[in-house]
Design goal:
about 5% helix, 1 helix, mainly beta
Length: about 500
């Protein structure tokens, strides 16, 4: 029996079990047994998890679902969002029902919306199959009229995983930060939460072995895990068994609040795209999980090229300690993106930006975590004719990018535009808007040629003089999966 070939088959089967793809056909036989270029096939099943949006009675939340049109998918399928369960007093689970159905996703290529109000809106468990799965995205956007965290809050519903890094959290006076953990599976998940401040690990056993029940969600208040008030924290969520979705909700009594999404995996170089041109304060929070310190070049990608911020040419990040640097109004009236690269030896880091717009009592906060490149395609589900800004950055080489605006949730005709982003620059592009738009619409970003592209989308809505805004980065939407091919006829294995 051909053991190497069977090992290959086992790997492909494992890959299919984890990601799902539409179809895998045995390549034509040639008898050579050599590998060919990997094929990219649409995923068949996708899971997304949306945290409970707010504990405020003054919160209004909207959800937008969108699946891009992807060739090679099955004709059938469905997408649905269901309420997570909660533990009852007798230890059994019961459904938390929203006031009305959250949303019913439409056909690929058309956005769908739904909403809920008040403090009882639950966390949601989402599953998409067949033609709805490739690139499925759901955006949760909440307006809080007053009180702690007032303003506009937004988060992309996340895929379940086993590890997350959140630089930018806090337990300082005036901040109320929660880690939301959501378990999509039929068995309990066991999670550890570690906190790292300016002096290193905040020793605590309270964050060890947290159980998240099946199909349930748990908000964990960070201040219950430590007695130390820390202005800048890095939160590390690791899963001992099972998998969860994780997001941090950062609420400020004076500066509004927003969701802090996880930073991309630790890497030697990082990009944080989409700093608004009118940002009045930008704060960099960085952490290295390894044993070596990191020395990094700090550069701002502007509309005219790379700039080194005066007085912040480099940053030194001590191993195991959270480092924060105030960059002030670093963009100075132009849109920008922050790029971190090693000065010498590359040391993996995670990072995020805390961004403030407005002045005095009319300030609002959002976060930009370091993100991966757009890759094949990225999707932003919730956009409007006014108040949406798409920021594109090409940090190393000039790139050509196609941006498509979908049909609206209430009607409209899709439209596409192509942009050229020069090497080292960031550009807030003029968004295409669907003809005859009704409701909200989605954007897909597809690099066509050139170097890597990073992207972020900002939603803004000024209420009573407060510049409410939220920023979501746009990494690859994982609509396809790479599947190795072989020249050997796999069907002959059934006869061996």
């Amino acid at each position: 029996m051909n053991r190497p070939t069977l090992s290959f088959l086992a790997g492909v089967v494992a890959l299919a079990a984890v990601t799902g793809f539409a179809e895998m056909k045995a390549p034509a036989a040639s008898g050579t047994g050599t590998a060919r270029t990997a094929a990219r096939l649409p995923v068949e099943r996708t899971s997304l998890l949306c945290p409970a949006p707010s504990t405020s009675d003054l919160a209004d939340t909207s959800y937008t679902s969108f699946t891009p049109v992807t060739t090679g998918t099955d004709s059938g399928g469905k997408a649905e969002l269901e309420s997570a369960t909660e533990e009852s007093g007798d230890g059994t689970s019961s459904k938390k029902k929203p006031a009305k159905p959250v949303l019913e996703p439409k056909a690929p290529g058309t956005a769908a919306t739904g909403d809920s109000s008040g403090a009882d809106a639950p966390a949601l468990l989402g599953t998409a199959e067949g033609k709805y799965a490739p690139g499925w995205s759901v955006q949760e956007t909440t307006e809080v009229a007053a009180g702690n965290g007032r303003g506009l809050q937004g988060v992309n519903c996340t895929a379940p995983d086993t590890e997350f890094w959140f630089p930018g959290a806090s337990t300082a006076t005036g901040r109320t930060d929660y880690v939301h953990l959501t378990n999509p599976d039929d068995s309990a998940a066991v999670v550890d939460i570690e906190l790292y401040g300016k002096d290193g690990d905040l020793k605590s056993t309270v964050g060890e072995g947290i159980t998240v029940e099946p199909h349930a969600s748990e908000p964990i208040l960070l201040s219950t895990l430590t007695d130390a008030p820390e202005t800048d924290l890095t939160v590390h969520v690791s899963v001992r068994s099972g998998r969860v979705g994780a997001s941090v909700q950062a609420l400020d009594s004076k500066l509004g609040g927003d969701w802090l999404a996880a930073s991309t995996d630790p890497a030697g170089s990082l990009v944080m795209p989409g700093i608004p041109k009118d940002a009045t304060s930008v704060r960099l929070i960085a952490f290295t999980p390894g044993d070596s310190d990191a020395d990094l070049k700090v550069r701002l990608s502007s509309p005219t090229g790379m700039i080194t911020p005066a007085g912040h040419e480099t940053v030194h990040v001590k191993a195991g300690m959270t480092t924060a640097v105030d960059l002030g109004d670093v963009t100075r009236g132009d849109p920008g993106s922050l790029v971190l690269t090693p000065t010498d030896q590359s040391v993996p880091i995670v990072a995020a930006l805390k961004v403030v717009r407005g002045k005095g009592s009319k300030q609002e906060t959002a976060f930009i975590p370091a993100t991966s490149a757009v890759g094949t395609r990225a999707t932003s589900a919730d956009n409007s004719a006014k108040g949406s800004t798409l920021s594109l950055v090409a940090p190393t080489r000039t790139a050509t990018v196609k941006v498509t605006a979908s049909a609206g949730s209430g009607g409209g005709t899709p439209v596409s535009k192509t942009y050229t982003i020069k090497a080292g620059t960031t550009e807030d592009v003029e968004l295409p808007v669907p003809a005859g738009l009704k409701g909200t619409y989605a954007l897909t970003v597809e690099p066509q040629s050139g170097g890597p592209v990073y992207a972020a989308r900002m939603l803004s809505a000024t209420e009573e003089g407060v510049p409410g805004f939220t920023i979501q980065t746009l990494p690859d939407d994982r609509g396809t999966v790479s599947v190795p091919q072989t020249d050997e006829d796999l069907s002959v294995l059934q006869k061996k």
